[in-house]
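Annotated sample (chain length 124).
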Amino acid sequence: MSDTKNRGKTAIGEMHRDSTREDEMRLDLQIADMYEVELVEATEIHANYHTEKIIEILKRRALQNGMSAQRVEEFINMMDVNSLARQIAEGKLSDAGAADILFRGIYSAESNGKDNDRHINFYG
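Output written by the structure step:
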């Protein structure tokens, strides 16, 4: 086993393993300790981690539903992903929930408002 500590996305991902929404604020403190930064900066690092996760989930789901990578990027650039990521870091929302919210917007725009996705209709 290596004595090196994980850093960056890998380390933050490890912190999230088996964590609950209630654990999110505690994770900000762990990130602050790990990077030796103020809590405000740690909160931003934490939110950025969730921003990347949301975008990964959203891209995968959109591409699986036949959207082009370029079109997905255009939608992502128009959306407020960071706001949802901050809500996740505060324990108010899950990554999957945020991706669902954003995907619903993309899907609705791409289908000209014709929501025929059974998952969207079930949760929406």
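Annotation: The chain has seven helices and no strands.
Annotation: The CA atoms of residues 1 and 11 lie 16 Å apart.
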